[in-house]
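The instructor's notes for this session suggest beginning with a concrete chain rather than abstract definitions. Hand out the sequence below and ask the class to guess, before any prediction is shown, which regions might be ordered.
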Amino acid sequence: MRILDFFRNPGSYSKPYIIAEAGVNHEGKMDLAKRLIDEAKEGGSDAIKFQTYKAHLIASKNSPSYWDTKKESTKSQYELFKKYDNFWKKEYEDLKIYCDKADIEFLSTPFDLESSNFLNDIIDAVKISSSDITNKPFIEHLCKFNKPIILSTGAANLQEIREAVSWIDEYGNDLSLLHCVLNYPTSYENANLGMIYGLKKAFPSKIIGYSDHTFPGDMSILETAFLLGARIIEKHFTFDKNIPGNDHYHSMDKEDLKIFIQKLDQKIKYIGKTNVDYIPSEELSRLNARRSLVALKNIPEGKIIDKFDLTWKRPGIGVSPKFIEDVIGKTAKKNIQIDEIIKNDFYE
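After discussion, reveal the predicted structure:
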């Protein structure tokens, strides 16, 4: 599934669009970045997404942490970002080529004007981080690329989301809003998946999705997000959840991804089609479990049939009770025996 095709007609896809958020879990090494691409593809993801930044462009040197420092001990945003900011234009161009060969979509979140400008040449949709939801000049700059936008809504209230949506709507970009909780990690009790429904209600014309920071566990959080209507699902992705620090500890790996895809396929099978109609396996039930008009007593030939002559019983192979008014007042063409199912040719 390609992101542009998905945005053009999201209702034609039973599965959500799945993004493996590699971020900078490549640790600044090209071989690990390519491994992430291969394993995301193997796991069944539609896209792999990186993060593109330079520490000095994203954070001041006085930038305290907002993550669990027991899991990632670095207490300065600038210092953490500095560890992983050695990839730039050439590296991401190479990763785009590698993704194309692996047949998985390449995406990356830009965090500054320079990275956004060169990424524009190699991405089909723009991901905007929760941290930039109030960054009006940056959002407007990204809108000018005239590409679909995926905006995470972590740590934002409804008014802030409405403002960001209004800025984007002025440019006419297709838009998906991803419910997100900006805790690293997010505890299960703080996942607040009901906000997916809240976003669907507040923005009925937008594609609503979910960006997850919980521990992967049995992947039931993502499964529930899908059942609540998430059409794009993004989760951090790693090749080894045991690596300390950064985003590895709350990421899924390829085996988690496979589990989710398997559960997703099962749920889609259970959900079935959305247009309301009976299914072929119900044909026999429609015939035998429904009611027909039945003679409550013997009805002699020539009698005017009245309501006291009729009742309704299974099976539904005769005249349906919904046509009882059409039968009452008609003349019996034959002797109708008690408990006999009424057929159309019994009266005139």
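Then share the key points. The two ends are 60 Å apart (CA to CA). The longest strand covers residues 17-23.
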